[in-house]
Amino acid sequence: MKFFELKKINDLNNALWGENPFTFYFSFHGFFNRSQFFGALITLNLFLNIITRQNIWGLSFLCMLIGFYSSLAIIQKRCRDLNIKGTLIILGTSAFFIMAGIIRFLNVAKTDVLFSTFKIIFILYLGIYLYTQFMPGAKEKDINLTCPLLKHPNIYFITCIAIFSIAFWAINSFYQL
């Protein structure tokens, strides 16, 4: 089904955002074509930006955790559509979210070395996004293809939270000196 052939609003909604939001955003099973990937990331980024702009620390942190977990699921589905494992893509996305959280919650000055490092990671993340967005899906897809890091997604997610916590504590301690 091509984008310009959609005849109803419901067809457009299903093509971009799926039928069930919970399985669409949080399930690691299935495939995402380019339009579903685009719709999921746009919706997710709007959600993240609206909530984090409220400047409520706990709510922003919870929102970033939800956004990170959902991003892992979204990218895994897109990688499966591309017929690649996507280990480097998952690592790049994880680095982006960890650094974004550290920058956000430490309120690091834009002239700081940490912010400069974040800019490099952001460019890497942007490259990952553009690659996954514009590459056509494979003709034959392997439903069992999974990034080794995401064989157990909850363990990987908790590991990333632990890395974030340790890095946040270490960097915060450094800035307190």
Write up what this structure looks like.
- The chain is an all-alpha fold and 177 residues long.
- Helix content is 71%, strand content 0%.
- The protein has helices spanning 9-17, 21-26, 34-52, 57-82, 87-106, 113-134, 153-176.
- Helix 3 runs antiparallel to helix 4, helix 4 runs antiparallel to helix 5 (87-106) and helix 5 runs parallel beside helix 7.
- The radius of gyration is 17 Å and the shape is globular.
- The model has no long low-confidence stretch (mean pLDDT 85).
Key traits:
177 residues, mainly alpha, 7 helices
Poorly predicted sequence stretches spanning 5 or more consecutive residues: none
Helix content: over 70%
Write the element-wise H/E pattern from the N-terminal end onward.
Answer: HHHHHHH
Roughly what fraction of the amino acids lie in strands? under 5%
Number of helices: 7
Distance between the termini: 58 Å
What is the secondary structure topology, with strand pairs?
Blueprint: H1 9-17, H2 21-26, H3 34-52, H4 57-82, H5 87-106, H6 113-134, H7 153-176
Summarize this entry quickly.
This protein has 177 residues and is mostly helical. It has seven helices and no strands.
